[in-house]
Protein: tRNA (guanine-N(7)-)-methyltransferase
Organism: Corallococcus coralloides
Amino acid sequence: MRPALLPDPVGLKFVPLEAPPDWDAEFGFTGPLELEIGSGAGGHALEYCRRNPGVRFVAFEWRKKYARDTQMRAEKAGMKNLRVIESDARFVVPRIFAPGSLDVIHLQFPDPWWKRSHAKRAVVQPDFAKVMLGLLKPGGRFDMRTDVQDRAVAMLEILEAAGFHNPLGAGVFHPYDPEEVPSTRERRYLASGEPVYRARLVKPAS
Ligand SMILES: C[S@@+](CC[C@H](N)C(=O)[O-])C[C@H]1O[C@@H](n2cnc3c(N)ncnc32)[C@H](O)[C@@H]1O
């Protein structure tokens, strides 16, 4: 069920920044810095942060209800390591993270944007794939999941062409890992047994 819209926006102070903030000061501790794009109802972000309290986790979700609800749930649970930003990741991410500063980028079940006129809204496109590669540390990981097979194939092609390394071989999807944290949407597919296409790509060391 959709949450009611909470009154206070989340993460808007980051949106106009022209340069990365001091993330150590923002979180109050040092540690890996991870990004999730399109966190939706927040199932993955919240559970991942709970399991990994040493990770500083920034989640983008442009639907205000979901973004605010996720941040509120993190605060109610006393979590210090999650910041949700209710904005379009494609425009803000390149300005608020320094090149080579991210340990992991998570992208789960991105909207497939079926209509041709909407295709430009897709997160994984050649230019933005290069931006994401540049923001990761050498050896940093890109974790992607989707239920849409042709989008999965197309995204993998774009990411590999941008310079991401696929340790399993070009075009090969990653098997299900029971240790990974499922997203809200993924839980549905795990229950129904419908296929999920996963990729774990790496930024080459040099
Ligand atoms: C299909 S939902 C999946 C949500 C979640 N990752 C999951 O697996 O349950 C995709 C989400 O990405 C968000 N989204 C799509 N493009 C975005 C963008 N450019 N910036 C921020 N959020 C975006 C949508 O609002 C939506 O909540």
Observations:
- The beta strands are 33-37, 56-60, 82-85, 102-108, 136-146, 197-202.
- Residues 37-41, 43, 60-63, 66, 88-90, 108-111, 123, 183-186 surround S-adenosylmethionine (CB under 6 Å).
- The chain has seven helices and six strands.
- The domain at 29-202 is CATH 3.40.50.150 (Rossmann fold).
